[in-house]
Specification:
Shape: globular
Number of helices: 12
CATH architecture of one domain: 3-Layer(aba) Sandwich
Radius of gyration: 19 Å
Largest sheet: 7 strands, parallel
Strand content: 5-15%
Order of helices and strands: EHEHEHEHEHEHEHEHEHHHH
CATH superfamily of one domain: NAD(P)-binding Rossmann-like Domain
Number of strands: 9
Length: 297
């Protein structure tokens, strides 16, 4: 069985979708969610109407409670771990990796990590780098890392200000090039690795990036062209952004942004071939935003 934790994360959901698309000839899939609400679990399962008995959904999986992890992981031979969105996500991820080892059944682990580990800044190392290191130690030759770049879905964080005033506000340099990545590409790449777990024969660190690069000035123009109205990019100061994030989202995220923005401003234009090589996918920003036009209206 292939386990996905958490199943309702962006990349976890896409991984499940990809595994189901691969057909019923492979192992079954266990989607693990934190929710314990039966209705929520049924609604999640209903989003995969063609899955049949290929997909099982289990709730109550909490990375802070080891007792909820090991019984579920013990059903799995391969496991996708998506780094959670939480202030203590580094510790939670490492808890899941240790639980996978303790299950005694999990043989192969794929971890959704971040390109930011390459900055070697303290917060990305704590949140992602130490987890990569632990996984490699506990699952030698059976651990693969997906180092993901700037999500296309992060652009959707600006839907409301675009609706209200036609502007995107960020501390990122207006001309810094970024190879935006579709979260679906992360999930489909993870599915490939989980279905072909001979990690000695594939890339153990997979760099997940989009096939093209854009600056936020260009992103604003693309959105404006799709909507038929002017959309402007406004670069705000890093100090202002950090203060806003600290007040609204907490100090951990503010510190993370403080450490990585200087690196983003130098450009995230690396276009790696890994996704296309493994999946044949080349997801574009324009297609992603066009398919979500309704969200901006």
């Amino acid at each position: 069985m292939i386990g996905v934790v958490t199943g309702n994360s962006q990349s976890g959901f896409s991984c499940i979708k990809a595994l189901i698309e691969h057909g019923t000839g492979g192992p079954k899939i266990l989607a693990m969610l934190r929710s314990t609400d039966d209705t929520a679990l049924e609604k999640f399962q209903a989003q995969f109407p063609g899955a049949g008995d290929l997909l099982e959904t289990v709730g109550g999986i909490d990375a802070r409670v080891l007792e909820t992890l090991i019984p579920a992981f013990s059903k799995c031979q391969s496991l996708l771990i998506v780094t959670p969105l939480a202030d203590d996500r580094g510790a939670l991820t490492r808890s899941m990796i240790r639980a996978a080892k303790a299950s005694k059944t999990v043989e192969n682990v794929v971890l959704v990590s971040s390109w930011t580990v390459e900055t070697k800044q303290p917060t990305p190392v704590e949140e992602f780098g130490l987890s990569e290191q632990l996984g490699q130690e506990l699952f030698p030759n059976h651990f693969a890392t997906l180092r993901c770049g700037y999500f296309m879905s992060n652009i959707l964080d600006h839907v409301e200000p675009i609706k209200a005033v036609g502007k995107i506000h960020l501390p990122i340099d207006a001309e810094a090039k970024i190879a935006f990545v579709d979260p679906d590409d992360i999930g489909y790449t993870a599915a490939y690795l989980l279905k072909n777990p001979s990690f000695e024969e594939v890339i153990k660190i997979v760099n997940v990036s989009g096939p093209e690069t854009f600056s936020f000035n260009e992103i604003s123009k693309i959105i404006g062209d799709i909507l038929g109205k002017e959309v402007q990019y406004v670069q705000i100061s890093l100090e202002h952004a950090i203060k806003f994030l600290a007040e609204k989202r907490g100090p951990q995220l503010a510190q993370f942004v403080k450490e990585i923005v200087p690196f983003v401003n130098r450009g995230m234009a690396m276009q790696y071939p890994d996704v296309f090589k493994l999946t044949g996918r080349k997801s574009t920003v324009c297609d992603y935003l066009r398919s979500r036009k309704h969200l901006f209206q």
